[in-house]
Structures are given as structure tokens and as C-alpha cells.
Amino acid sequence: MSTTDTLSRTPWSGTADGAELDRWKAVARGVADRLAADVLERDRANRNPVAEAQLLRSSGLLDLLVPAEFGGAGGHFETAFETVRILATADGSIAQLLAYHYFNQACIGFYADPADQPHWWRRTVEGGWLWGDSVNPVDPTLVLTPEDGGYRLNGLKRFSTGSGVGDVIIINAAVEGGENHGKVLAFVLEATREGLELLGDWDHLGQRLTASGSVRYTDVPVRPADILGEVTEEPIATLLTPGVQLGFGNFYLGVAEGALAQGRDLLLARQNAWFLSGAETYAQDKVFQRVLGELKARTAAVAALAEKLNRRFDAEVARSSALTAGQRGEYAVAIAELKVVATEVGVEVANRIYEVTGASSTSNAVGLDRYWRNVRTHSLHDPVDYKKIEVGAYFLHGELQPLSLYT
């Protein structure tokens, strides 16, 4: 068996049953309720989400995707996507933190040799690890230099989601020199590793509690035991990126659902009605009902597409080494379709909800703005217009985009 064949194997199989989905949805709703209780205060404080990370840990959500034989919940990706969606209705920052954790941790299954995976799975469970990342592909400043059987890591990486609160950070960097020159390796370092500096410079419009600051690496020792594997172009290994994009779609959907839910509550609580309407209350006004009906219908359509693609992800992962580039590419385009509509609906709902909640809902005490701030901030992760091009090029010509950490 070649090294590439070994790297392409994954530990997941089957799909989630009703009992699994019901169990973890209930857990996620409980976590979301706790997050919702003080979401405005935490958002405004803009501190590292240490307590929130502990809440995720104590709930069991961090190990949902870890195979049961290694101490995890033995759950499926469909279930993980649903938990992200539910958390996003209450707190977009923590939903993003969990979504990134799932795929950072899942790199064990996508990159590591099957013989090494049990070791990594057990370590993440025993350590209660929350996984941050430092892989921003448009900021390729990290360099691995061979030294004494291992490497030295140097450089700066921005937008390192979860790094400020993660127990470990997964990093991608190119090797410069030696027998592995030019290879990109994925490796895992504890956040306290010598020479690793968390700059804590994340201060943005939204997604304030994602601990997404920059990380500076100065002669950081990287040992052979830290390396998960090589980042290859094997179809199953590169399925990781569409999975991340699918996580984004579920996150944006959850934000839209959260904005709708709070908007409905605010509208029902409004007294009187617009003087030209002839209705007794704002909630009975046909104009306001029409707006909410339009936004709710569009959100429901996104939900139907997301649920279909969420379930399919487990089926595609289960193909493992048998997954072809064509199958992977077609599925990535389907996820790009979701990314387009989820982005646009998420931003639209978070913006237009004010049309039914009125001027009083712009009060800082209400905090309705956090939905727009969060979805607007994260939806700029990669330009949605390029997702539209992906869809159009495939529909017209069957063309797939070059592989990257965005496609």
C-alpha cells in the first residue's frame, strides 16, 4: 500500500439515525440556551471565550465525531452540522468555534496514517482538546526548516480561528529544504509550545468571541510526533474543504433562524399598529406578515438544501479511498450552491428583520444587530461571487475549480 493510499483512509461510516440526531440536537439546544442567557454581555466584553470552551467540553460536543472505540461519541457529520446550526441561532461566535474545531480535529481522519490515528484520537479525548487552527491559505508565510530529524517553524499567520482558546493548534506549512522540500505538512502543536506567541489581536465587527487572532512562530520546534501527515490532493483528503464550506452554510442558516426567532418575539410584543394599516397590532398587519413570510420561506428553502447536503457528507466520507475526483468535485459544487444562497439569505434576514421589529429594536439593549454583524463578518471569509462562478462553470461546461483550501 502506498503512502497516499494510506493517507486517504477515514474512520467514519454509515449515517446518523434518529436517536443520534435527537440526542445531540437536545444537547446543542441546552448549550444554546445557556449561551443565549448572556450573549450580549459576552459579545460586548470581547474576551477570549474560555468559559464557553469549557461549556462545549463539558457538554460532550467536542468529541461528537471521535470514533466510539477511541472514547468518543461515534457521531456523524450530519449531526455535527446540526449542532453548529443550533448554536448559531444563539451565538454565532461559538457556533463558528465549534465548526472549526470539528474539521480541525477531523484532520486526524483525513491526513493521518490509519496506524497513527488511534493514538491521536485517544489523545484528543483524554486531553479534552479544543482544536484551533493556523492555516489561512491567503497568508502563506509559514516555513518549516529541517533540523535534527524534525523541523523549526517560523512565520506569522493571521485569522487563526480558535487559537486564542484552543488546547492545540493545527498548522499547515511548507517544507523548505531537505528530502521533503516543497511538501506541505499538517501538524499539531500545543498552544503553550516554546516560540509560539498568541497575539490576541482579533477585534472585528462581528464573530468577536472566536479567538481568531494572529499567531507568531519563532524557531518553534516541530517534532516527528507532532506531524499528522502530508496535505495531498487525494480526493478524500481534499473533501475536508467542502466540509468546512458546508459548515459555513449551516452557520449562516442558524444565524438567519436566530434572527427570525428574535424578530418574531419582538413583533408579537409590539403594541398598537401603524395608523394606516387598519390592524389592531403590528403582528396583525398584513405588510409585516408578508415580510416575515418571505424571509421565513427563503430560510426554509436553505434549510432543506442544507439538510440534504449534511446527510450526503457522511455518504461521501464513507467512500474513503474509493472517492473519485469527479465525485468530490460535483459534491463541492453542490455545497457551493448552498454557500451562495445561505450567505445571501443570512445577510438579508439579519438586515430586513428590522423592517418588522421597528425603530425600538435598534436599541443596544435589544442586541438584534449581532446577527447581522456576525453573518456579515464571516460571510467575507471568501468571496461568494467566486462560489457563483464555480456553480456556473460547472453547469455550463462541467468545469471544476483548481483545488485549494477554498474550493
UniProtKB/TrEMBL annotation:
The answer to whether keyword Metal-binding applies is no
InterPro entries noted in UniProt: Acyl-CoA_DH_C (IPR013107), Acyl-CoA_Oxase/DH_mid-dom_sf (IPR046373), AcylCo_DH-like_C (IPR036250), AcylCoA_DH/ox_N (IPR013786), AcylCoA_DH/ox_N_sf (IPR037069), AcylCoA_DH/oxidase_NM_dom_sf (IPR009100)
In the record, biological process GO terms are:
L-leucine catabolic process
Q: Which keywords annotate this record?
A: Monooxygenase, Oxidoreductase
Every copy of the Acyl-CoA dehydrogenase/oxidase N-terminal domain together lies at 25-125
Give all residue intervals belonging to the Acyl-CoA dehydrogenase C-terminal domain. 246-382
GO molecular function terms here?
3-methylbutanoyl-CoA dehydrogenase activity; flavin adenine dinucleotide binding; monooxygenase activity
Annotated Pfam families: Acyl-CoA_dh_2 (PF08028), Acyl-CoA_dh_N (PF02771)
Q: What is this protein called?
A: Putative monooxygenase
